[in-house]
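Let us work through a complete example step by step.
Step 1: write down the sequence.
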Amino acid sequence: MAKANNDSRSTDERWTRLLRSLRPGIGQLGTYPPRALSWPPRKSKNSAAGVLYPKISIVVPSYNQGDYLGHTLKSIISQDYANLELIVVDGGSTDATLQVIKQYESYLAWWVSERDAGQAAAINKGFQRSSGEIMAWVNSDDMVAPGALRRVAEHFMANPRTQAVYGDRIVIDEAGYEIGRWVLPYHSAKLLKWVDFIPQETLYWSRSAWDLVGGRIDERFSFAMDWDFLLRLSNKDIVIQHLPIFLGFFRVHGFQKTSSQMSSVGAKEISAIRVRELGITPSQWKVLLRSVPFLFAAKWCEFFRFKLN
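Step 2: predict the structure and record it as tokens.
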């Protein structure tokens, strides 16, 4: 009897793994067992003669993420991007965050640790101190992929009409092991009104775009502020492009908002945005049906772009 039960569980597990493998990685917080994260070496081009790269301002909002903040800052600093403005805005952490900040203080353009009104307020506070032509924020538990800043800067330089770009994401666990990938097929402004598949930690935009939408993250949002910001950009009909390269690492752990607040605060804010953009509160089935062509295209892209690039 015990053997039969074990065989049944084993069969169920195989079917579960099979079904997960048939789904695209986007929208999922991991699709396979942890494996070592490796990255091919790239030759630095930052010192190329005559190349003047635009200043990139990155704000890192932080609160009690001392276990991960060092990895986040190191991933940005190790880009060896000369024209970088790195800002850390901490909400008055009580863990090891301050020690981590002071360890990297010489690389920071500005930092502060004080109580604030939340993540959106911290991001706004940081950008008020910034001056870069290209802007981004990276949460204190996520990371920037090697070579990302240069790839982004070169795209903006080669495409002056572009106002915002984003790329693909690799999902990692608490220990930094890879557990999934989001390989996106293309940018869809229409689908963005229904669902947000854009990896926030891979998003970069121009200062002119920032000014165009009021130069602020909407502090009324505590969960979906990135989706709201993207929609405000998109509704200005600016050029937003998806780059088919991995630009960021998204960390999954028990204390992150994506895991802990999706069914509460997250659901309310997502519903409010859909009502604002669509005029209705669509069912999950309707959202899924609207997403099907994009999801099929994403799965197709996974077969052809699954190697690290």
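Step 3: interpret the result. Residues 52-304 form a domain with the Spore Coat Polysaccharide Biosynthesis Protein SpsA; Chain A fold (CATH 3.90.550.10).
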